[in-house]
């Protein structure tokens, strides 16, 4: 399963570059350059704290529990990223890249990790 998650990170990086160039272009916007910078920081830190605290409640040796953990973690993280892009970068259509990456990642987890 560790290899599957590593491959997912590689696939996400490649698709982020390709889809970002196709939809947005060379000048991509960042939420950290808008008024949503603090909301982004607080949100991602909160998600990470909750994710790390979940390790006390799940058995990390159980593959099924870890698959569900990664599915929830990925969905929440990229869903939050999509929401921030949609609110703060609506003019750049960066939110479409985030939505496509969310769909690709969830599909990958469902088909190849499960």
Describe, in plain words, how this protein is organized in 3D:
- This protein has one domain.
- The protein is 75% helix and 0% strand.
- The chain has 4 helices and no strands.
- Helix 1 packs antiparallel against helix 4.
- It is flat and about 45 Å long.
- Keywords: Membrane, Transmembrane, Transmembrane helix.
- It comes from Solibacillus silvestris (strain StLB046) (Bacillus silvestris).
- This is DUF4181 domain-containing protein.
How big is the Rg? 15 Å
Query: pLDDT below 50 for ≥5 consecutive residues: which ranges?
Result: none
In helices, the fraction of residues equals: over 70%
How much strand content do the residues show?
under 5%
The oligomeric status of these chains comes to single chain
Number of strands: 0
Pfam families: DUF4181 (PF13789)
Transmembrane segments: 7-24, 39-58, 70-89, 95-113
Keywords: Membrane, Transmembrane, Transmembrane helix
Protein name: DUF4181 domain-containing protein
What's the helix and strand layout?
Blueprint: H1 2-23, H2 37-54, H3 63-88, H4 94-113
Helix pairs in contact: 1-4, 2-3, 3-4
Protein name: DUF4181 domain-containing protein
Transmembrane segments: 7-24, 39-58, 70-89, 95-113
Keywords: Membrane, Transmembrane, Transmembrane helix
Name some characteristics of this structure.
single chain, 114 residues, mainly alpha, 75% helix, flat
Task: Quickly describe the structure.
This protein is mainly alpha-helical and 114 residues long. The chain has helices at residues 2-23, 37-54, 63-88, 94-113.
């Amino acid at each position: 399963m560790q290899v599957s998650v590593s491959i997912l990170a590689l696939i996400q990086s490649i698709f982020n570059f390709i889809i970002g160039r196709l939809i947005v272009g060379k000048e991509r916007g960042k939420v950290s350059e808008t008024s949503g910078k603090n909301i982004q920081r607080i949100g991602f830190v909160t998600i990470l704290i909750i994710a790390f605290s979940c390790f006390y409640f799940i058995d990390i040796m159980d593959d099924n529990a870890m698959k569900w953990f990664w599915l929830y973690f990925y969905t929440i993280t990229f869903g939050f990223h999509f929401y921030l892009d949609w609110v703060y970068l609506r003019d750049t259509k960066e939110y479409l890249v985030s939505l496509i990456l969310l769909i690709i990642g969830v599909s990958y987890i469902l088909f190849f990790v499960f």
